[in-house]
Here is the input.
Amino acid sequence: MLGDREEKQAEVREVLLVEDNLIDAQLVRRLLRRITDAYYRITHVRTLNDAVLSAEELAPDVILADLNLPDSRGTQTVSSLQTSYPDVPLVIVSAWEDEAISLRSVKAGAQDYLVKGHIDGANLHRVIRYAVERKRTELELVRLAQYDQLTSLPNRTLLRERVDRALRRATRNGTGVATLILDMDRFKEINDMLGHEVGDKLLVEAARRIRASVRDQDTVARLGGDEFAVILEGVSEAKEVLPVVERIIENLQTLRSIDGNEVTSSSSIGIAMYPDNGNDLSELLRAADLAMYRAKSSGRGCYQFFASAMQEEAQSRHALAWALRRAVDKQEFQLVYQPQLCLRTGRVIGVEALIRWMSPTRGLLTPYHFISGLEEFGLITQVGEWVLMTACEQLQRWHRMDFEPMRVGVNVSAQQFEDPMFIDKIRNALGETKLPPEFLELEVTESSLMSDAAMASSLLREIRDVGVRIAIDDFGTGYSSLMYLHEFPLNALKIDKNFVQSVGSHGRGGPISNMIIGLAQNLGLEVIAEGVETEEQLEYMRHHGCDIAQGYLYARPESTETLTPWLGAHQRVSETKIRSMPVKKQGGGTGS
Ligand code: C2E
Ligand code: CA
Ligand code: CA
Here is the structure.
């Protein structure tokens, strides 16, 4: 930077002199000619208008201008010259020795202010040099504030400025503007796996390719991280946007390697149109963002135009997120328990803990209404930990009441399974409640095991080493890979209620249940039939060798207040009589 400056001093300097008074102009010429270590080439114009009109063909290193011209006065001269020559340093040469005017000129953007009659050659020369230097620093600061350092693309600040201008132009011309948000797919993975250096290079190259996919007058900006925005002017319809979108997608898809590392650089694109989908940058970005998320969920390298339905959905998701966070804070969740009976002895061998949400606005809700929300908003591990602790606590309470020992089934969602602290949380729940581990059975689904089978296998082993039981929930509805039945240390399979409920004359449920029971027997696993509602279903399961059943026929999921007396009564009932329990007629507990 410094070397640069010293070199420049010896160069020819192009000066634009804006001065209506010919004698004053002569004076400046003479002063500049006397300077020995630089040569100044002067272009002289006499009006602001001439200066403005020359902006296209002139590229001066500095402008010397009188404030008062035939067609402009005072700071208006400064701002007009600024607009026409935004990158050129400006020195005002004025007849007035006035502190206030001088200050106003500098505030309006001039680099310096000189008073006629007080200047000599050396003085003027020095002022010009400083003005050039000051302007360069100023431009550098502007660049820092407006451009992304990594990709050199405009940042959010400059984007806002450009979009404001684009929207005004569009309103004036009756056209539209398209706002695109691009989010690179799986960037985080690449960054984590190959390191930040490769990640940075990928961003730079992606930025270059996006830039190359659009016209010069379009804006490409980096919003931060792996997110970019593209603003296309003069487009009114989706069909004018599509070719550009497709070009971007294609140019990114062909970027496959950085420094010899294999990378993917597809990106998901959301598109919002002005004026249909928003009135300013914030609204347009929000709409494009929603569309981008929708695109992302339909796979990699896809695009999606904003539709107003997304807004409503986002609002209701937003409300749900808010309500769920509050529910976690205020502990609005509770557990209900559904008994599981041994088909051979008729004894209650366990209960399944099922979560409910007592919502202050919507009443008692079943998991169907909120589990996916808890997962989406990252709350499930926290709530799951509470479920684990509460279920173990309750079971210990029942054990202390001298009921026959039972176990408790706790549902575990995929995210909990990916939580590195999960095994500690299990140990902690058992430690705190002093529940012997064999009384805890974790119910996991096939899909949560299959997303990373190797990891799941080692985690399951750790869980088994603690002594906790593992059951596959909804068996047969997921990825059903028979391989993992060998791999994973399991204790039980639960037949999904859809199969159980379609046993009987023509349903497929019968053969499938049979197959599951056979499989389990061969592998030495227990089988639990869930959702048993009729005598026929019960009989079928018992006849085909199923070990355990749970379902409305016996009991619905109930609160501890209802279930505790029921368990007390039930555990003393003789084996042959346990068919229908009084509790099933009370119903209710599911809240649905
Ligand atoms: P699931 O694990 O398959 O639980 C069995 C579901 O079947 C429960 O629904 C239960 O109330 C219902 N059910 C039991 N017997 C019958 C019956 O005879 N007929 C019919 N039609 N349904 C019966 P629920 O309580 O609504 O739970 C739904 C799902 O929510 C559960 O399915 C489980 O996947 C999830 N879930 C429940 N509690 C938790 C929890 O604490 N954590 C996590 N991660 N998931 C949970
Ligand atoms: Ca379950
Ligand atoms: Ca199930």
Q: What stands out?
A: The mean pLDDT is 88. Residues 121-146 form the longest helix (26 residues). The pocket of calcium ion (ligand 3) is lined by residues 473-474, 496-497, 530 (CB under 6 Å). The chain has 24 helices and 21 strands.
